[in-house]
Write a structure and sequence with these properties.
heterodimer; A: 334 residues; alpha+beta; 60s Ribosomal Protein L30, Chain: A; 2 domains; 9 helices; 30% helix; 23% strand; B: alpha/beta; Rossmann fold; 3 domains; 13 strands; 17% strand
């Protein structure tokens, strides 16, 4: 019989200590964490520090191309990266449902470790709670992170007339992959999540001296939510061409079946970039060097036609507003 | 597998522009086309088709959204059923979002009641098997497209001997609704786009009486943008030649007779209701189905009759959904459109579901609207 996580693992006693030592310390090991103090003491290289937190709940916990652990690292790394900050230190809190399989927990922890290597970040503080059956759905993870701001001024407020808009991967892969993996659907699909840490490609853009006005990873609400937020925050119009937006055929298929739009699906390793037109060629050249941003494409530009709105142009030249997503995503009926 | 792109092949910009050019050339008079089905409303709005077409062509958004036409009293039925102890209520799509007189299924779910939004009606079987000590009520909605799925679910429920599944049937039918809109004589509709998926089941023969009675062309159209454009062209040509025939543009899926197996299955379990009240339109004779008396033991309207509210509920006086459905008004003609009436707080039927005309106008915005205020 497989080992399960018990309430006693969160009780603070011997079982808790053994879980921390044999699992978390084993995989997350670093000098700061191993000091076992009440709080981590950190040294930062920059005066400006970026600081963020995010909680991760996903069903199913494991999906093609990732799991909740990989999400929890990449998500916080990306939030820091989007502010032009080099991700340095993370904290991690697990809320685990009593009876959760130890092997699954270890698989999640190992994915977290592997994902941290990619951006050279460390978990320097952590917490584990075990809650009675039904208290959470399997496992919830919270991560918080700090990073050193290398490039200031990147902001949703900073879009300007004439800026170009770049998307760094096909849109909608994560949302569609999660839907396809849910047991009710029983879809057979090779579709993988786009879940990835984006720091390496952001760092390369900064190192190449490329001027960046805004950066945002298109997580919940997808591309549509980010572009609408930018248009409203910067009080500009955004014009995108449907023909230029990369969308995987399988994602289109799932959207057709269920009546969804790929632009509203969540992504976990795809960002939107607003930057001056003159930087487009250089930026695309840099982005295409990295696997996670190899499919980067120029999809549109900032204009002043409809301030606060995003206009989507069809391949045959007609236009519509791309409205921000609203409410729960519910499948169509027929 | 031949190298056919079933998505992009029907969205080819060259074909779209060519069709638009031919329609602009051949269309010489005002034509009001009702697209009956909410799926077509979305294709038209999402792909910006009115911008490609001449001003002479006007789309009128019909009653073909099963969530929109559900009267509030029947939503209250769903809420009453879901509020029973030891009960799981299952339904499809955005039915759970629609408010009844006081609450919605979504709000009820947040209060801790067990309400499931399904991808397929057959999921009800597993829910009932996994919860043998609970009653599972399937709140069945939809036009002819989804009725066969409910029939299969009934067949399987009987075959497996599951005693804890009950059905609240709200299946409605297209021809009677179209007839109700046209028979008043005040509808401004010259032609119809026939529904895609409904016609796969029923066959296109069901529109023949409509074409004849009201001298209106009916072109059964697929859901892709080139499908709709080609169908509009066929309508223009029929009108230019004074014809009023049923044509089948969606020949890759629709035949004259339809899916006979599905029709037989529906016949086995269902019969016509005398009347059904459509939100926004009113009472339409023989426009909906109910379970045959032989299946009364699984009919939620019979078994749980004592808890179902009986008061009929009308929409707010300001709502002009009835006129919108008859082609006499557009969503932006309504005083409360996008102000007091929004998708998260709909006052009338057309704003309720994502397939409703007002919701589609709200979502895709006024770039698509001829004559709309910017």
């Amino acid at each position: 019989m497989s080992t399960k996580i018990l309430l006693s693992h969160g009780g603070g006693g011997e079982e808790t200590q053994s879980l921390i030592k044999n699992l978390f310390f084993k995989h997350f090991s670093n000098d700061i964490l191993l000091r076992l103090e009440d709080a981590a003491v950190l040294t930062m290289q920059s005066e400006k520090i970026a600081f963020t937190t995010d909680s991760f709940t996903v069903s199913p916990l494991f999906f093609k191309g990732g799991n909740i652990g990989k999400l929890a690292i990449a998500g916080t790394v990306n939030d820091l990266s989007m502010m032009g900050a080099r991700p340095k230190y993370l904290t991690c809190a697990f809320m685990i449902e009593e009876g959760f399989e130890y092997d699954k927990l270890e698989e999640i922890v190992i994915s977290m470790r592997d994902e941290m290597v990619k951006s050279s970040v460390k978990i320097v503080a952590g917490d584990t709670k075990v809650v009675p059956k039904g208290g959470v759905d399997g496992i919830f993870i919270n991560t918080a992170g700090v990073g050193e701001v290398l490039k200031e001024g990147i902001s949703a407020h900073a879009l300007r007339q004439g800026d170009a808009i770049i998307v760094t991967n096909e849109v909608g892969n994560h949302g569609a992959c999660i839907l396809a993996t849910r047991e009710e659907l029983e879809l057979q699909s090779e579709l993988k999540t786009d879940c990835a840490s984006l720091w390496k490609s952001v760092e390369a853009l900064i190192d190449a001296g490329i001027e960046i006005h805004a950066l945002r990873d298109a997580t919940r609400g997808g591309m549509s939510a980010v572009l609408n937020e930018w248009a409203q925050t910067s009080n500009v119009g955004i014009h995108v061409k449907e023909a230029d937006i990369p969308v995987a055929n399988e994602v289109k298929g799932i959207c057709e079946l269920l009546g969804f739009e790929p632009y509203e699906f969540a992504n976990e390793g795809t960002m939107l970039i607003a930057l001056p037109q003159c930087e487009v060629v250089k930026a695309l050249e840099v982005l295409k060097r990295f696997e996670e941003t190899a499919k980067s494409a120029l999809i549109g530009n900032v204009d002043d036609r409809f301030e606060g709105k995003v206009v989507l142009e069809t391949p045959w030249g007609s236009e519509r507003f791309l409205e921000p997503p609203k409410g729960e995503l519910l499948p169509r009926i027929c | 597998m031949p190298d056919v792109d079933l998505i992009e092949g029907f969205r080819d910009p060259v074909h779209m522009k060519a069709l638009a050019a031919i329609i602009r050339k051949e269309c010489t008079r005002q034509i009001n086309i009702m697209e009956v089905c909410g799926g077509h409303t979305h294709t038209i709005m999402k792909y910006g088709l009115p911008q490609l077409l001449p001003d002479l062509i006007e789309f009128v958004h019909g009653p073909g959204c099963p969530v929109c036409i559900m009267p509030k009293e029947r939503i209250d039925h769903a809420i009453a059923l879901a509020s029973m102890p030891n009960t799981i209520l299952a339904t499809l799509g955005d039915m759970i979002r629609v408010p009844g007189s006081k609450s919605s299924l979504q709000k009820l779910r947040a209060e801790g009641y067990d309400i499931r939004s399904l991808y397929s009606p057959l999921d009800v079987i597993k829910i009932a098997q996994d919860n043998p000590d609970k009653n599972v009520v399937f709140f069945a909605i939809g036009f002819e497209t989804t009725t066969p799925m409910s029939a299969v679910l009934i067949e399987q429920t009987l075959r497996l001997g599951l005693k804890n599944i009950f059905f609240h049937i709200n299946h409605v039918s297209v021809p009677e609704a179209v007839d109700a809109i046209m028979s008043g004589g005040d509808a401004k509709i010259d032609a119809f786009l026939g529904p895609s998926h409904v016609s796969v089941i029923t066959g296109y023969k069901i529109y023949e009486p409509i074409a004849k009675a009201y001298h209106t062309p009916v072109v059964v159209a697929g859901f892709e943008p080139t499908d709709v454009m080609e169908s509009v062209l066929r309508i223009v040509r029929q009108i230019n030649h004074g014809k009023a025939e049923v044509e089948n543009q969606y020949a890759r899926a629709v035949s004259r007779e339809g899916n006979l197996k599905a029709q037989a299955l529906v016949e086995t379990y269902f019969e016509k209701r005398d009347h059904f009240r459509w939100r926004g339109i009113g009472d339409i004779a023989h426009s909906a189905l109910k379970l045959k008396p032989a299946y009364a033991a699984m009919d939620a309207e019979v078994v749980f009759d004592d808890i179902l509210p009986k008061v009929l509920l009308d929409d707010h006086k300001m709502c002009i959904c009835g006129d919108i459905l008859k082609g006499r008004a557009k969503p932006y003609d309504c005083k409360v459109f996008a102000k007091a009436c929004i998708p998260s707080n709909p006052m009338g039927s057309c704003m309720v579901s994502s397939e409703g005309a007002c919701a589609a106008y709200f979502k895709y915005g006024n770039l698509n609207l001829k004559g709309a205020k910017a």
